[in-house]
Amino acid sequence: xxxxxxxxxxxxxxxxxxxxxxxxxxxxxxxxxxxxxxxxxxxxxxxxxxxxxxxxxxxxxxxxxxxxxxxxxxxxxxxxxxxxxxxxxxxxxxxxxxxxxxxxxxxxxxxxxxxxxxxxxxxxxxxxxxxxxxxxxxxxxxxxxxxxxxxxxxxxxxxxxxxxxxxxxxxxxxxxxxxxxxxxxxxxxxxxxxxxxxxxxxxxxxxxxxxxxxxxxxxxxxxxxxxxxxxxxxxxxxxxxxxxxxxxxxxxxxxxxxxxxxxxxxxxxxxxxxxxxxxxxxxxxxxxxxxxxxxxxxxxxxxxxxxxxxxxxxxxxxxxxxxxxxxxxxxxxxxxxxxxxxxxxxxxxxxxxxxxxxxxxxxxxxxxxxxxxxxxxxxxxxxxxxxxxxxxxxxxxxxxxxxxxxxxxxxxxxxxxxxxxxxxxxxxxxxxxxxxxxxxxxxxxxxxxxxxxxxxxxxxxxxxxxxxxxxxxxxxxxxxxxxxxxxxxxxxxxxxxxxxxxxxxxxxxxxxxxxxxxxxxxxxxxxxxxxxxxxxxxxxxxxxxxxxxxxxxxxxxxxxxxxxxxxxxxxxxxxxxxxxxxxxxxxxxxxxxxxxxxxxxxxxxxxxxxxxxxxxxxxxxxxxxxxxxxxxxxxxxxxxxxxxxxxxxxxxxxxxxxxxxxxxxxxxxxxxxxxxxxxxxxxxxxxxxxxxxxxxxxxxxxxxxxxxxxxxxxxxxxxxxxxxxxxxxxxxxxxxxxxxxxxxxxxxxxxxxxxxxxxxxxxxxxxxxxxxxxxxxxxxxxxxxxxxxxxxxxxxxxxxxxxxxxxxxxxxxxxxxxxxxxxxxxxxxxxxxxxxxxxxxxxxxxxxxxxxxxxxxxxxxxxxxxxxxxxxxxxxxxxxxxxx
Amino acid sequence: xxxxxxxxxxxxxxxxxxxxxxxxxxxxxxxxxxxxxxxxxxxxxxxxxxxxxxxxxxxxxxxxxxxxxxxxxxxxxxxxxxxxxxxxxxxxxxxxxxxxxxxxxxxxx
Lengths: 884, 109
Fold this sequence. Notes:
Mean pLDDT of chain B: 80
Radius of gyration of chain B: 15 Å
CATH superfamily of chain B: Winged helix-like DNA-binding domain superfamily/Winged helix DNA-binding domain
Number of helices of chain A: 26
Number of strands of chain A: 21
Oligomer: heterodimer
Low-confidence stretches of chain B: 1-6
Structural class of chain B: alpha+beta
Shape of chain B: globular
Largest sheet of chain B: 3 strands, antiparallel
Distance between the termini of chain B: 31 Å
Strand order of the largest sheet of chain A: 2-3-8-5-7-6
Low-confidence stretches of chain A: 474-484
Number of domains of chain B: 1
């Protein structure tokens, strides 16, 4: 009942907390006065002075206790004792540095990893895109089961149809997401990453310029007058953040372009773009008229309340009316966020789960440590209970100790997380979308704090509940016997081992995949090959002598065995083409699709790809000679079955941006050779059917303005060739940038970068879990053995052999480990299914990996048991029995 | 802790009544008075009076001030507040009622 009086008293006490010193002195003085007066009275009645003083003290009672009580009346007891408990807790932590540092390290690592990973996870996958009302933005694509069901972007005609015929959108716009242009006139020539947008693109996204303006309507119809926008990053890094940048001219592709605006930082979409140019939707460019040339990203904004499925139906109907589209084509609206983060969503989710398991192991471990310690302290606690401390008070003190530990561990963890996030942001080549704006976010910190608090409560309630604080038992010997009291430890050890098994299996599967990827036969010999990228301004026959000169320059560098050019990058990239046959009907929309590369004569020789049948290209395959093609073994098998492909005639519809023949029937080419397969699109992607065409026979000449040069070194190190190559090219063409100079091994490493990171992370997590698990098991078994010292002493006194004791302990530990492993294997069988996507030529239930994980955990666990077991078997019966 | 409360209540009553009878008085005087009047019935430690005094003062029923005794010692004198007087009346009432009830029970046989 909270009466007014009581409130006043509470308020008064609260105030007095702040002047407790004065009160203490006051109480002391008052008690002194009492004792003096009693002494005076006793002397008055005839007692000798010293006896009177002693008698007065005796009658007064336990002075310090009473003083404590009187003072206590002034304070909110909780507050004061909380301060006491915190001080006490800190003292305890300082007193056992071993325990404290292990517990703090464990917590900091678990919580730090969790907060960092959660930051990445949250920032990348969960945070809304930085556009106005981003939930209403969709990427429009199409697919059809009859042509392989792959997601297709949109062509110029597709986009115009969507824009002009649909009624559901509040805005539709398209962009060519990425191409390159050469920037000259400001120092070293450079290759820029460029995106082109249709009208309204920035309106649809809701992006306003940071400086200047975006493109206006008239500009899309006046192509002679080039205007461009620059990205925030490009403006900051390349133009020095010049505030007067509006009106400045950039020389791109040898044409002056005027900067009319600077965009705000766009970390969520096309973040690597340097310069934005206009793209007219009118048929100024031929390739915008080709229905099958699907290379545009089309973004639509739906007004509130419109179901994307309704929009999908409408657009599907529109696309099905278009000539040449398969009858089963379907249009799909992908939320823009999914489009941006989709490729990494699963991997991030898996890593997040792995980190959560590490955190769980961390918590189990800390719980085990605290539990063991509080049982060790049970005598102390029982004594305090006996001296009058209330159970609530002791429980509170345990809670405060737990909180203290988690608070320090959590703080360290958050610091660690901040460092880790910085590392992720700056690490070169972490291919995560939206990484630019990554920071340790509040949600992550809040979640960590929650975890810490939950941990503290768990640590405390566990021992609190399990420890019955049995006074009698504690005094009887301070030792609990084996059996019941150890059950919670058994649970913790089993849980930890099970978690570690799951992580070890996952890591094992990823490592095995990784090893297989590295050992895979790429189909070519990358070791002595260097690649470089050249981008020029030739879209016409003038490009032919240019490339002949470049090839000649490359070939004659001392130490070069051979040189070639291609628009493809082995293990990284290839364009696509559809194939039509001269000798059979070609149903429209059903043409088989292949990888397609334009190459020079020595491409296969330079890369080390063997010829299977027929011949390679020669210098005689030029623009004026009959058109030819080479196919790989896979294409020969799939396209020609049992027939010999040599001599067959095919037409190749090249699907790359701008370099495709028009919709008319492509010219027929005779197949002159078959080469063996190479992994063209990635070291971890199986080789598909591929066609190779001489670059001199591109009738559109588009391929001439951008290709990679490959140099095979005569010696073992190709990297030295890069500098000579660059200087030779720039001697001939001073404005020619030579970029992306890399040895092929680097290119391959980049193509499996995500896999590499996944392996490193997962292996790290598993290693950490294993370490924690070993520590936890060691701690728990040590503790359990200590509890049984007396029993061992008796058994040894009665003649038990050392080996008997050793075996007994190891059996007991082994049983726990076995339980943990069985549980862990069961969980792994469920968990590894989610990994399937990341695996390479490795089954999700690969028995080798499971066996290894079981072995590693078993050995670690038994090793952790062995030291305490050995110690137990060497117990000296005399000391063991005396100690108790 | 009902038992403790009952005891505490009784001690409060004694303290309040003593201060009411003596006017302003220090702790030693109060202890002495209770012992004499109750014929050493309360054989508690003398010191245990002080936590009680503190508590009662916190509640606002008594107020204290430092003063000088006849023997020229500094001592803290307690006096009853208005709230204390009301509380005393209330507790006396309660006590009498309890006694009446207990008596009735004892006589019932």
